[in-house]
Design goal:
The structure is a single chain. By secondary structure, the chain is mostly helical. It has a domain of 113 residues. The protein is built from 2 helices and no strands. Helix 1 packs antiparallel against helix 2. It is rod-shaped and about 200 Å long. The model has no long low-confidence stretch (mean pLDDT 86).
């Protein structure tokens, strides 16, 4: 060894410098390295096969079972949803049909009531029309009978003034009646 001044210290042997390079590639150390590699490999193989891999296999199996259960449950829920949808559509169809039936019954009932009211109103109107026509006919006949008597009286006066002769009521009435029939 050398001191700080660069001088060799007496009594200390210096070792020869070893070859530089990777110690794994030194041929002298291959046998112990292979033994330790084999021991490590066997230890890790046993640990993996006895401890880690069974646990991993168990976890995988549990996940597979859970996924299968979830898929089964999803299929059940899907079937329930489809059944509920079918029931809903059926109920909706029944409700529509019932509503259409009620609407039809109501329409028919209202139409029957309207027709009945219309018939009653038409009957009342026809009765009033018949009554009014009878009154008009009576008034017309009364007016015609008055017209005839007025016309007969007027004819008597006109003949008396024009001809200077008086005619009787029967002659004036028959002349006016004959003229009314011709017109």
């Amino acid at each position: 060894m050398a001191d700080t001044d660069g001088q060799l210290i007496e009594g200390v042997e210096t070792a020869a410098p070893e070859s530089s390079g990777l110690p794994q590639l030194a041929a002298d150390d291959w046998a112990p390295q292979l033994v330790w590699l084999l021991i490590s490999f066997v230890f890790l193989y046993v640990m993996m096969s006895r401890v880690a891999l069974p646990k991993i296999g168990l976890v995988i199996e549990e996940r597979r079972d859970k996924i299968a259960d979830d898929l089964d449950r999803a299929a059940e829920l899907k079937q329930e949803a489809e059944d509920a949808l079918t029931a809903y559509e059926q109920a909706l169809t029944e409700a529509r049909n019932k509503a259409l039936g009620i609407a039809g019954e109501t329409r028919d009932r209202v139409k029957a009531e309207t027709d009945q009211l219309k018939a009653e109103t038409d009957a009342k109107i026809n009765a009033r029309i018949a009554e009014a026509e009878a009154k008009i006919k009576a008034a017309k006949e009364d007016a015609l009978s008055n017209v005839q008597s007025i016309a007969a009286g007027t004819a008597q006066v006109i003949v008396a003034k024009l001809v200077g002769k008086d005619i009787d009521d029967a002659t004036a009435n028959s002349a006016v009646a004959a003229e009314l029939k011709n017109s």
